[in-house]
Specification:
The chain is α/β, with parallel strands linked by helices. It is built from 21 helices and 17 strands. It has five domains: 51 residues; 102 residues, PAS domain (Beta-Lactamase); 158 residues, Histidine kinase-like ATPase, C-terminal domain (Heat Shock Protein 90, 2-Layer Sandwich); 128 residues, 3-Layer(aba) Sandwich (Rossmann fold), CATH 3.40.50; 104 residues, HPT domain (Four Helix Bundle (Hemerythrin (Met), subunit A)).
Length: 677
């Protein structure tokens, strides 16, 4: 084969290879075209989606009235969105390139602002309120959500702030706060007025009632006794009227003060029955009384408040019952250290419509349509509302059932603490000789001459030495110069009032264990009492008070001489079982008790005054076992009852009653414990 033929073949092969390469290139080009076409379609679709998303979210932001502002890391404005510009009164060109904090005169604390900027530079977001000024100088309050702006490398290049105008809400909040301040000021003024009126009226009433009690003990003719009886009844009526008026203020401010005392329960119910029996003597209405059980001893609760509720309920029944009967019922359930007492007042009166029952306990509301009745029932509509709040304050509940045209029944249930006082013993039967002799006089701090005479007469009658101070400043000076067993401190006095005098005495380092201070006050407001506790006052004796009430207080607070010690309250058999005749061991345990338990109990009382029931529960649980070690198992049981009552938040009055009872028994027991050390 010649050289030309070989060359031709080589050329043909090259042509074939080129044609094959061209075909491959054409295929690749077609493939690339298709890929490009697909990419263009994807990009177009993604672009459309992005545009739709942008429109969607821009619409959301605009509808939400949110203003967007972008700034760089130096707070220089990069972009201001239209709604933000509209919000602030600027054009975007006026803002771009300016420092945000300077343009808007931001009044935020600069250190705080720098901290927020630093957070965004580190990649963190934050939400906060900001006060800034618009172009016209108007102050606006904005809620700002600020977050970092990141580049493709994840680096923070600036921040985006989303601003929501809350100026209206802020102004409304400020108006509400101002209205609240004015309302609280008005309430404080009302309390001050109530306290002042209470003091001015109750002070002379205290003398009238007290001196009547003293006069009753003297020799009187029949006519004089009749006059005295009329005087006492009139004073009681006047006191009742004053109490009703003051109850309105106490209820409106949520302040009902509970003062537990010992009393025979059935005698209380009978006295209410007898009161209305006389009133309805010439009416065709029978007053019935049914008690399912009579307590073995007196019970402890606020006798006056229970009586007030019963009188309100029976009086209400008498008003709407023209014939038939009114039944006063009492049912007791034994709960160990207390009773659950259910009182029921039912009648055969005109009844109440079902849709009116929920209105009964509202103030100034009468449920009957008096215009359609021949009889004008009158009244203010306060009695049932007062009763409802009193029952709640006593730790109980009240409800009503009625059938229109046939009658009504009110029922309330409250706890009553048990006592060891026999039913036939009255406080007035406590003789002078039962009052303890004291090593130091009692200081009477009182500026009213009539009250001075009343209290000093009683103390002289009982053989208790006294000194008199006519204002708080004199009292402070006298306490600084001498020793006293007890201070009876009036609250409202010239020169220095009882609050400031008590605080000054406590600042001398004289604590309650060495000098108890009892306030003599006409105020029944809980806030006034809390203020007194905060100043260092230990207890209260409300004006007007009767001789037996002052006697009971003296028995609780005056230190006893050994010759005056009451019967030993310590369980000797328990002590023998614990200590097995080891007097040294017993003495050391008693000493530890005296060094720890009274102080812990004071902490418990303080926590109770602050309504800190968790701490009351903890302290009661902590010191409970110690009472067994000194032979006082009864007090250990009461501490356990305090623990249980603290777990239920509606048992505040039960806890308070138990604590008062433990305090009294502990004070009477301490001299016996000291004697055995």
């Amino acid at each position: 084969m010649d050289e030309i033929t070989l060359l031709k073949r080589r050329i043909e092969r090259e042509r074939n290879a080129r044609r094959q390469a061209e075909r491959i290139l054409e295929d690749k080009a077609l493939e690339l075209y298709r890929v490009n076409e697909s990419l263009e379609e994807t990009v177009n679709r993604r672009t459309l989606q992005l545009r739709q998303s942008e429109i969607k979210y821009r619409s959301i932001i605009e509808n939400m009235q949110l203003g967007l502002l972008e700034v760089d890391n130096d707070e220089v404005i990069i972009r201001a969105y239209p709604l933000f510009c509209q919000m602030m009164g600027y054009e975007e060109e006026e803002l771009r390139g300016k420092i945000a904090s300077q343009v808007f005169q931001i009044s935020e604390d600069q250190e705080d602002m720098q901290a927020k900027i630093a957070e965004r530079k580190s990649g963190l977001s934050s939400v906060y309120e900001l006060a800034i000024h618009t172009k016209s100088g108007e102050l606006k309050y904005l809620l700002v959500s600020g977050g970092p702006i990141l580049n493709e490398h994840g680096e923070v290049t600036g921040s985006l702030g989303i601003h929501y105008d809350i100026t209206y809400q802020k102004e409304l909040q400020q108006e509400l706060e101002e209205a609240l301040y004015k309302a609280e000021a008005a309430q404080r003024a009302q309390k001050a007025f109530v306290t002042s009126v209470s003091h001015e009226i109750r002070t002379p009433l205290n003398v009238i009632i007290g001196m009547s009690e003293l006069l009753e003990d003297s020799k009187l003719s029949g006519t004089q006794k009749e006059y005295l009886h009329t005087l006492k009844k009139s004073a009681d009526i006047l006191m009742g009227l004053i109490s009703d008026v003051l109850d309105i203020a106490k209820i409106d401010s949520g302040e009902i003060l509970v003062n537990p005392v010992s009393f025979p329960l059935c005698e209380l119910v009978k006295s209410v029955r007898d009161m209305f029996s006389v009133k309805l003597e010439f009416e065709p209405v029978e007053i019935r009384l049914s008690c399912n059980a009579i307590p073995e001893n007196q019970v402890e609760a606020d006798e006056k408040l229970i009586r007030q509720v019963l009188i309100n309920l029976v009086g209400n029944a008498a008003k709407f019952t023209h014939q038939g009967y009114i039944d006063i019922g009492l049912n007791l359930v034994d709960q160990g250290d207390r009773y659950e007492a259910s009182f029921a007042v039912s009648d055969t009166g005109i009844g109440i419509k079902e849709n009116d029952l929920d209105k009964l306990f509202k103030q100034f509301v009468q449920v009957h349509d008096l215009k359609d009745k021949k009889r004008d029932y009158g009244g203010t509509g306060l009695g049932l509302a007062i009763s409802h709040r009193i029952v709640e304050a006593l730790g109980g509940n009240i409800h009503v059932s009625s059938e229109y045209g046939k009658g009504t029944m009110f029922q309330f249930t409250i706890p009553l603490m048990k006592t060891n006082m026999p039913l036939d013993v009255k406080p007035s039967q406590i003789k002078s000789k039962e009052l303890p002799a004291v090593s130091h006089p009692v200081l009477i701090v009182e500026d009213n001459p009539m009250n001075q005479q009343y209290v000093l007469t009683l103390m002289k009658k009982w053989g208790i030495p006294t000194h008199l101070a006519e204002n708080g400043k004199e009292a402070v000076d006298m306490v600084a110069a001498g020793k006293y067993s007890l201070v009876l401190m009036d609250i409202q006095m010239p020169i220095m009032n009882g609050y400031d005098a008590t605080r000054a005495i406590r600042q001398m380092g004289i604590d309650s264990s060495s000098l108890p201070i009892v306030a003599l006050t006409a105020s029944t407001l809980k806030s006034d009492h809390q203020r007194a506790f905060d100043m260092g006052i230990d207890d209260f004796l409300a004006k007007p008070f009767k001789p037996d009430q002052l006697q009971n207080l003296l028995l609780s607070y005056l230190p006893l001489h050994k010759k005056d010690l009451p019967s030993n309250p310590l369980d000797e058999s328990m002590l023998e079982e614990i200590y097995q005749g080891d007097a040294e061991y017993r003495s050391s345990m008693f000493q530890i008790f005296l060094e720890t338990v009274p102080a812990e109990f004071e902490n418990l009382e303080r926590s109770l005054r602050e309504s800190d029931f968790d701490t009351v529960h903890q302290i009661a649980h902590k010191i409970k076992p110690n009472f067994d070690l000194v032979g006082l198992p009864r007090l250990r049981e009461k501490m356990q009852s305090i623990e249980l009552a603290c777990k239920s938040r509606d048992q505040e009055n039960v806890v308070a009653n138990l604590v008062s009872e433990v305090k009294r028994e502990l004070q009477l027991s301490l001299p016996h414990i000291k004697r055995l050390i």
